[in-house]
Amino acid sequence: MADVVVERYDDADRDAARAVVLAGLEEHWGSLDPELNHDVDDLAAAYPTGTVVVARVEDAVVGVGVIVPAGPGEAEVKRMSVLRSHRRRGIATAVLAALVDVAREWGCRAVVLETTTTWTEAVAFYRGSGFTHTHDEEGAFGSDSHFRLDL
């Protein structure tokens, strides 16, 4: 596989990053509701206090992730996704590592995140990445699993 480069999002990445996140959502849910997920139209604008990173393979955006401040000493991972065609190649690990590095730069003591409980590959990925499952919570679309990584 070609080298993976993870770098800060640029406005030129907007459409590609949107496509990556929406592809993951459609894969998981089977369809997309046009009334939902408006934040992915422009991730940088939707999360102005956060940092967005993209993963590139041969100049194509194949992964994306966002980290935002989430309270005193904490940061939260949002909208992390890797194209199905590029999974199991270490790309998600590289994106997550870049997001955790940003949290460290901010002086955070922990990184938190949530994912849909039935998205078992994501749950296994976060557990395998050192995150601890803290609790489940019923959300608007089913059960959400919450995770924490102490830094």
Describe what this molecule looks like in 3D.
There is one protein chain. The protein has 151 residues and is an alpha+beta fold. It has one domain (4-109): Gcn5-related N-acetyltransferase (GNAT) (Aminopeptidase), CATH 3.40.630. Helix content is 29%, strand content 36%. The chain has four helices and seven strands. It has helices at 14-29, 43-46, 91-105, 120-128, and strands spanning 4-8, 51-57, 60-69, 74-82, 110-116, 132-139, 142-150. A seven-stranded mixed β-sheet has the order 1-2-3-4-5-7-6. The longest helix has 16 residues, at 14-29. 31% of the residues are buried.
Number of domains: 1
Please tally the β strands and state the result.
7
Q: Which CATH-level-2 architecture?
A: 3-Layer(aba) Sandwich
What is the approximate shape? Answer: globular
Q: At the fourth CATH level, what is the homologous superfamily?
A: Gcn5-related N-acetyltransferase (GNAT)
Amount of beta strand:
35-45%
CATH topology: Aminopeptidase
Report, as a whole number of angstroms, the end-to-end distance.
31 Å
Following the backbone from N to C, one meets helices and strands in this order, namely EHHEEEHEHEE
Q: Indicate the CATH class.
A: Alpha Beta
Biggest sheet: strand arrangement = 1-2-3-4-5-7-6
Supply the helix-strand structural class. alpha+beta
Q: Please work out how many helical segments DSSP would assign.
A: 4
Q: Could you name the ranges where pLDDT drops below 50 across 5 or more consecutive residues? A: none
Mean pLDDT: 92
In oligomeric terms, what are we looking at? single chain
Largest sheet: 7 strands, mixed
Helix content: 25-40%
